[in-house]
Amino acid sequence: MTVLQKSYSIKRFHNDNIAAPGDYATDPGAFISPEAFDSARREISAWPGYTPTPLLALDGMAEALGIASLHLKYEAPRFGLGSFKALGGAYAVSLYLRRVIRERTGEDVDTQALLSGAHADTIKDVVVCSATAGNHGRSVAWGAGMFHCRCVIYVPQVTLPGRVDAIAAYGAEVIRHPGNYDETVHQCASVAAENGWTVVSDTSYEGYTQIPLDVMSGYTVLAQEIFEQLPAGEHPTHVFVQGGVGGFASGMIAPMWHHWGKDRPKFIFITPENVPAMLRSAEAGRRVTIEGDYDTVMACLSCGELSLLAWKLLEHGVDDTIAIPDQAAIDT
User: Fold this and answer.
1) Could you tell me which residues are beta bridge partners of residue 238?
2) Where are the alpha helices (DSSP H) in the chain?
3) Domain count across the chain
4) Using CA atoms, how far apart are residues 222 and 91, in angstroms rounded to an integer?
5) 80/94 same-domain check
6) Which of 12-16, 93-97, 212-216, 278-282 shows the lowest per-residue confidence on average (mean pLDDT)?
7) Does a structural domain hold residue 1?
8) What domain range includes position 237?
9) CA-CA distances (angstroms) from residue 144 to 16, 85, 89, 132?
10) What is the pLDDT of residues 216-237, one digit of tens each?
11) How high is the pLDDT of residue 324?
């Protein structure tokens, strides 16, 4: 029998502005379309090595908690990258390169044509770049290598050497920036503008939304796998999802809301206590930026500013936000 031995002090905010029960399409924040869900699944499932990651039933923990069931989507096997982020950045790279090829040749190319390198000469001058705390940059670098274009990745100065090496292993040039994650995002955007590079970011800001939308669309594949993996007739009541800028949370909420409609589960956003951008934003009812150097072991969630696009869905789509201490992450 599983015994739960530790408890932690947390901060929680309940969203009184949550959307009323209804269909996903009726919400003004429904910016990821069902057509985008379908396109992402069709494209990504054609990539070499694709297989759905496991949905694990944690029966012992469910019993200890006194709930009917508990499932964990286990992302370690995802394309060998060890993270759901493999679905987002690489997918956005593929869509961007297909748009470039269409503009330059008038030809609509498919996944296999990109993978084969048949259009490598057409995109030989293309450079994609991104700022990352680790896993998103690996996805962009992996996608750039797989689809045959150059890649430059910016990381905050404090990024662990192992994370830098993991990105460089896919052929990307990695540059450290002496600032936090959000400052690194702005530096990457500035250098990209100077050099004519294309930013592939999982966060959006004014005037930059298409590629982050593509990233979030890629994440929806994970939710679509869950629909097929849940036991017949089982309908989750609560979905807990970690969040930094909010892109992954949006990529889960959108397809699940669409799938279950007015019977959708409650969505719980988990964020680091030391970088509570979502918690502060939920409390204020608007995007709030966290200033300063972020000190959290949850490096990939160390983001002080929510994605502009993601907030449109999170504002009315997240039922509760919970900020947890680092020790909770370390222990689990």
Assistant:
1) 266
2) 34-44, 59-65, 89-105, 111-116, 135-147, 161-168, 181-195, 210-229, 247-260, 277-284, 308-317, 326-331
3) 2
4) 13
5) no
6) 278-282
7) no
8) 11-85+216-331
9) 42, 14, 9, 15
10) 999 999 999 999 999 998 999 9
11) 84
Q: Which amino acid makes up residue 240?
A: F
What is the pTM for the complete model shown? Answer: 0.93
Kindly tell me the burial class for residue 311, based on how many C-beta atoms sit within 10 Å of its own C-beta (0-12, 13-18, 19 or more): buried
Are 177 and 189 in contact by the 8 Å Cβ rule? The answer is no
Distance CA 95, CA 90 (A): 9
What does the alpha-carbon distance between residue 238 and residue 240 come to, in Å, rounded to a whole number?
Answer: 7
Is the same domain home to 103 and 80? no
Q: 139, 171, 201 — which closes off a domain?
A: 201
What's the chain's average pLDDT? 91
pLDDT (0 to 100) of residue 25: 85
Rounded Cα–Cα distance for residues 31 and 263 (Å): 20
* Closest-CA residue to 15 (of 274, 225, 224, 313): 313
- Which residues are within 8 A (CB) of 87 and not within 5 positions of it... i.e. 6 or more apart? 40, 44, 78, 139, 218, 219, 221, 222
CATH number at residue 237: 3.40.50.1100
Crossing angle of helices 34-44 and 210-229, rounded to 10°: 80
pLDDT at 288: 86
> Which residue has 């090496």 as its token pair?
165
Are residues 226 and 277 located together in one domain of the fold? yes
pLDDT digits (tens, 9 = 90+) for 256-284: 999 999 999 999 999 887 777 888 888 98
Is 287 a member of any domain? yes
